[in-house]
Amino acid sequence: MTEAGMRLPAAPAREAEYGHDALVVCDNLVRIYQAEGIEVQALQGLDLLVHEGEMVALVGASGSGKSTLLQVLAGLDAPTAGRARVAGQDLADMSRSDRVRYRRHVVGFVRQQTARNLLPYLTASQVVDLPMAIAGVPRAQRRTRTAELLESVGVAHCAGRRPDQMSGGEQQRVAICVALANRPRVLLADEPTGELDSETAQEVFAALRTANHDLGATVVVVTHDAAVSGQVARTVAIRDGRTSSEVLRSGVGPGDVHAEGTAEEYAVMDRAGRVQVPREFREALALTRRVRLALTDDHVEIRSDRDEDG
Ligand code: ADP
Ligand code: MG
Questions:
Q1: Ligand 1 center from residue 154 Cα (angstroms)
Q2: Measuring CA to CA, which residue among 135, 138, 140 is closest to residue 105?
Q3: 76 CB under 6 A from ligand 1?
Q4: Which ligand 1 atom sits closest to the C-alpha of 35?
Q5: Lowest mean pLDDT among 39-43, 65-69, 110-114, 156-160
């Protein structure tokens, strides 16, 4: 039918897809491990959005699912259910060649164990060169990029050294250069300062900031270090395989590394509207299974169901 009069009215604008403008999207992400007949739910419906250019810290107790999440985002592990998308690539549905391309060009990954990031028989220059050589980058470009990267995070003096000739902090900074060699859009770091003393950890953290501010990588860093999470604009807490709360800090950004930004903690509401009420709040008012909710002009009240004046 081509008659104008027969046309259907324009469809109402579809609700924008969850996270359509985010670089990293985790939507109800589930990862279940089967170990000797026992099921471990490492991720239990985790939602997370990270926008291009952000630097986000992930914190949470041991066993809360942080490493599992990073393995999925790195393309090293696949989710059991739910959706994970990075830079438009659906991570649950990648062919082998997609996966190779993704791991080579879209993400860089830094592990906690300094020894596992490098190769014992290669110098810093050689190991940073390697991912570019594999990707077919011409030699002259590789040489320039390697020198620039090592310089940018303060380890130019390590160019000719093997890992056993470098400190732990130097090794981790070289590892960051390896991860950045092919200009990934996302840099993932799983407790990169976990084996380092606090001063050395600061140097490694500064290298992550350089990757973010100067080299344009979006950074997701898992950390136990409050000094680290205190320096990023957004810290996401993971509990039991889900995001539970976020702290946003103002006054933290390029140039004010040591700024004591004002921090505000937010609870995370999932897409079904569920919010976790912190234990302290529940205990203070003896909130248990049922609560009363009331909508006021500008906030929502939660009350015990045992209110005297019901
Ligand atoms: P975190 O990094 O926050 O400490 P992980 O993601 O390593 O947490 O682990 C989350 C949960 O999943 C833990 O209970 C852990 O024991 C379990 N887990 C992680 N990896 C495996 C695996 N390969 N096989 C079985 N269980 C695993
Ligand atoms: Mg871990």
A1: 34
A2: 135
A3: no
A4: 25
A5: 110-114
User: How many whole angstroms from 298 Cα to the centroid of ligand 1?
Assistant: 41
18, 236, 269, 287 from 77: Cα distances, Å = 23, 21, 26, 39
Domain ranges of the chain: 51-78+94-276, 279-310
Distance 68 CA to ligand 1 centre (A): 6
Predicted local distance difference test score (pLDDT) of residue 245: 85
- The amino acid sitting at 256 is D
Strand ranges inside 133-204, DSSP E: 186-190
Mean pLDDT of all residues in 119-129 = 97
Ligand 1 proximity of 237 Cβ (cutoff 6 Å): no
Residue nearest (by alpha carbon) to ligand 1 atom 24: 33
Q: Which of 29, 62, 68 to mutate to test the pocket of ligand 1 (most atoms within 8 A of CB)?
A: 68
pLDDT band at residue 12 under the 50/70/90 scheme: low
- Positive or negative: CA dihedral 239, 243, 247, 251: positive
pLDDT, tens digit, for every residue of 202-215? 999 999 999 999 99
CATH number of 51-78+94-276: 3.40.50.300
